[in-house]
Amino acid sequence: QVLLVESGGGLVQAGGSLRLSCAASGRVISTYAMAWFRQAPGKDREFVAALRWSGDTTAYADSVKGRFTISRDSAKKTVFLRMNALTSEDTAVYYCAATTIPFAQLARATTAYDYWGQGTQVAVSS
């Protein structure tokens, strides 16, 4: 079992930045990759970014590439999502997810992830 707790969401003006954190506990050693997803009101949950726990591979949605950065502190068992140049389109609840399945490539589907956090709200005002 892996427990994930997100933090760092809030209200920010367009063009601003936020850093989300996801603290993992439990059987973190079994985690293969972690990811961030987001869900805006009335929309499906969508992939944002993923990172192999070894740290050697990352993946990003086209909509955030160049603006968002996923990283991790393995000693603190924490994954971060640095978000720059935020727009109103980034407003959503952001979820942290973890998978114990060693996919050949970083997975972008919600069904690939075993564990989920409770989410943290990000609101961008224009």
Q: In words, what does this structure look like?
A:
By secondary structure, this protein is an all-beta fold. 0% of the residues lie in helices and 51% in strands. It has strands at 2-7, 10-13, 18-26, 33-39, 46-52, 58-60, 68-73, 78-83, 92-99, 115-116, 120-125. The strands form two sheets. Strands 2, 4, 5, 6, 9, 10 and 11 form a seven-stranded mixed β-sheet that branches. It has a four-stranded antiparallel β-sheet with strand order 1-3-8-7, with no helix packed on it. A hairpin with a 6-residue loop joins β4 (33-39) and β5. The model has no long low-confidence stretch (mean pLDDT 94).
List keywords for this structure.
mainly beta, 0% helix, 7-stranded mixed beta sheet, globular, 126 residues, 4-stranded antiparallel beta sheet, 11 strands
Summarize the structure.
This protein is an all-beta fold and about 130 residues long. Helices cover about 0% and strands about 50% of the residues.
Q: Count the helices. How many?
A: 0
CA-atom Rg in angstroms: 13 Å
Largest sheet: 7 strands, mixed
Strand content: over 45%
Number of strands: 11
Helix content: under 10%
Note the overall shape: globular
Which structural category fits the helices and strands?
mainly beta
Order of helices and strands: EEEEEEEEEEE
Question: Distance N terminus to C terminus?
Answer: 40 Å
